[in-house]
Design a protein that fits this description.
This protein has helices at about 10-35, 60-80, 95-115, 120-125, 125-140, 140-145, 170-180, 195-210, 215-230, 230-235, 260-265, 275-280, 280-295, and strands at about 40-45, 50-55, 180-185, 270-275. By secondary structure, it is mainly α. A hairpin with a 3-residue loop joins strand 1 and strand 2 (about 50-55). Helix 3 crosses helix 13 (about 280-295) and helix 8 (about 195-210) crosses helix 9. The longest helix is centred in the N-terminal third of the chain and has 26 residues, at about 10-35. The two termini are about 45 Å apart. About 25% of the residues are buried.
Amino acid sequence: MSDFVSGFWNVYVIGIVLASVIGCAVLLWIQDSAKHVEGETTGHVWDEDLQEYSNPLPNWWRWLYYITIVFSLFYLAMYPGLGTYQGKFGWSSTGQYDGEMKKADEQFGPIFKKFQGQDIMAVAANSEAKEMGQRLFLTYCAQCHGSDAKGAKGFPNLTDGDWLWGGTPEQIKETLTKGRDAMMPAKGVKPDLNGDQIKDLAGYVRSLSGLATDSIRAQRGKELFGEACAACHGPDGKGMVGLAPNLTDKVWLYSSSEESIIETITKGRVNRMPAYGEFLGDAKVHLLTAYVYGLGGGEKASPAAAPVASAPAQSK
């Protein structure tokens, strides 16, 4: 109701609700007080001999209706239902949620905080922390990355050593906290490249990772790669952390087939990893980071680790 700036809508909703409840009571009373003649029909006949008789409702059934109407009035007095009136109990779904979350934080908060002060690699090796991290992962991450964390088309495998945004504990935590937005610009829309050029470029990209391709097309594509792709993927196609994926390895987020690569070059790709920092809080993000790192594909932290680029990343 807070969306309505006029008080009219509050009165309107209250009127509709009360009129509906009272209308049900009046209808029931009219039906109850109507005269009924035993054996008289309404005149409705089906299949020649099936008739509708004008008999009153059984008393037990009628009184159930009356009880329902009385209960509805009691409910509207105690709980929200009449416009902006919150009811005698002042209940709200938001309030109940906040209360349950507060109770859960009081019960489980100390457990999460116990691990928050520990090094991520130490937490990753703790069996209790692993179980807690796994439950968090299955709740918030498995829908995209799979229950085994091996990903799917468009969603990266978290168990291998391929990390577009970096796989150190600090970089994984940053990804979980802030989220990531990745974008591969389309080359066939303006078009920057025509159909044959895109096929040549796809052939060269496939050759970078040792996949079978037309050598003539691959040679022509090599010349195009320097102009269209090297700025992000590098002249050798090995990419850059936080900017563009390595095109020379065996890892393909959107498939290594020629059709898929052509589609990627032509239409581009847009992908997003949501941010969980504000939603989960520091303690849970810390534990989830340790679990993801402990899946086996994480990289050891290094003082000289390259910073993650701030520009949108391209998707392979």
